[in-house]
Design goal:
Blueprint (H helix, E strand, L loop, with lengths): L6 H4 L8 H10 L8 E7 L2 E7 L8 E6 L2 E6 L3 H8 L13 E6 L4 E9 L2 E8 L24 H11 L1
Antiparallel strand pairs: 1-2, 2-7, 3-4, 4-5, 6-7
Length: 163
Amino acid sequence: MTTIDFSPLLRSMIGFDRMAPSLENAFRTEAGGYPPYNLEVEDENKYRIVMAVAGFAEKDLSIESKDNMLTIAGSRATEDEEKSESRRFLYRGIATRSFERKFQLADYVKVVDASLKNGLLHIDLVREVPEAMKPRRIEIRGNETPAIEGSGHTETKHVAAAA
């Protein structure tokens, strides 16, 4: 099996300890599979997973989000399988097998809605970055600019200079 050395890429990145194993895992995972799905980007912080789950009812599907892992599972009721045994098929191309699909979510990504329409499962995701984690501008101060404006120490300097 081929392994990829991500060390040149990670030299300039700080705090991405989980990135290399995640990339290696994604490299090993085969594309495709059942059921087929689309990943859509609606804007910078909104995403949608659309999964083709024809033949599955809402009660047959489960969605769970835990520790940045989104798990979507589907299993048909055994009643449906028993009914189909009495029928004879010339060709059976509609998949009714159980499935489990997992998606690794980035930090602060949350599931906000899920709906089933016309055999498609729509899962809406939103990234809600806390205010403390959003980028902020850091001012560079010169020698004459006080470090903290409005503190008692800097006000004394301004008063002394004015007098």
